[in-house]
Backbone:
């Protein structure tokens, strides 16, 4: 019997810790006696047959680097029935028996479709957004939070020196987790997230006025990307309070940088687990973290789960960041 061949790809936005997951898939696969292929630029690599043969040394010196050594992409062509069929046909031509897909929900929908076309896939959650309902943790989230905190700490120095207000947008797509955690860690006067409706007067202006009376002279307002509009918010805050206000969008800087310990460990463990699932003949599964432990769900079931937002933590922020 010929060696089982598996492939690994990263898809969607890159996230720190993806390299640790790739490394784990490659080394675990080899330890199981498998041949491992690295696919370049997400599903595009399957459409273009752009793959590289991996060995133990091809993943050396990557665990501490952000980004993804396999590159990544969002692939409009793959998102069509024809694209999925072409990718599956190419997998068969390349002798690929299974694929580990590291990415977010969009990547998992691709993994489900590719499984449907006859190529067993396993998803690994990799995104800075922490927005995958089935998993309480996604690779990259910890590093991105720490980067955002470092950046807002820098902003705070200048905000404080000028007695100003800074309105800062952090990433997260439609998920407020990055904003909530960052907001708590930097002591933001207000945190705006898409999961909780806000009232401009009550949640920003009145809180600023209240803290001003207690002696506070500078303010940080953290706004999730899913709420947006930081430039307009800044203008309105300045107009209503008379406090000079600046808007900052942190942007893609949050996606880069050396992965934190947590992301290196989560990437390594999840990559191992995904490869073991393929070895055991499993298919259409997503590796998740539940109660701090790694387990797996059916991808379709996972995609239908509803995300829960940590409202208790949000309420705590309201009390302690004042
Ligand atoms: O999903 C990760 C993420 O960084 C989101 O936080 C953000 O909304 C999006 O990707 C940005 O995408 P792009 O890199 O295509 O601009």
Residues:
């Amino acid at each position: 019997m010929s060696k089982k061949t598996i492939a690994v790809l990263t898809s969607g936005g890159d996230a720190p810790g993806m390299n640790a997951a790739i490394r784990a898939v490659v080394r675990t696969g080899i330890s199981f006696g498998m041949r491992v292929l690295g696919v370049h630029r997400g599903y595009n690599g399957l459409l273009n047959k752009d793959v590289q043969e991996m060995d133990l040394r091809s993943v050396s010196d990557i665990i501490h680097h952000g980004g993804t050594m396999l590159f990544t992409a969002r692939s409009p062509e793959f998102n069509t029935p024809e694209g999925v069929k072409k990718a599956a046909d190419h997998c068969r031509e390349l002798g690929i028996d299974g694929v580990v897909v590291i990415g977010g929900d969009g990547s998992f929908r691709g993994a489900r479709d590719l499984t449907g076309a006859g190529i067993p896939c396993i998803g690994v959650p990799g995104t800075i957004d922490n927005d995958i309902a089935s998993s309480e943790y996604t690779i990259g989230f910890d590093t991105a939070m720490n980067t955002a905190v470092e950046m807002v700490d820098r902003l705070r120095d200048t905000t404080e020196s000028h007695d100003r207000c800074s309105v800062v947008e952090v990433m997260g797509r439609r998920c407020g987790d990055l904003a909530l955690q960052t907001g708590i860690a930097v002591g933001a006067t207000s945190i705006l997230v898409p999961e909780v409706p806000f009232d401009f007067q009550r949640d920003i202006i009145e809180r600023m006025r209240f803290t001003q009376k207690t002696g506070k002279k500078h303010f940080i307002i953290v706004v999730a990307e899913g709420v947006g509009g930081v430039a307009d918010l800044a203008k309105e805050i300045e107009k209503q309070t008379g406090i000079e206000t600046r808007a900052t969008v942190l942007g893609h800087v949050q996606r880069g940088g050396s992965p934190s310990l947590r992301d290196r460990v989560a990437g390594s463990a999840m990559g191992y687990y995904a490869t073991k699932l393929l070895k055991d003949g499993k298919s259409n599964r997503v590796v998740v973290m539940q109660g701090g432990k790694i387990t797996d769900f059916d991808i379709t079931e996972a995609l239908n789960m509803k995300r829960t937002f940590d409202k208790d933590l949000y309420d705590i922020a309201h009390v302690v960041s004042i």
Q: What stands out?
A: Residues 28 and 276 are 8 Å apart (CA to CA).
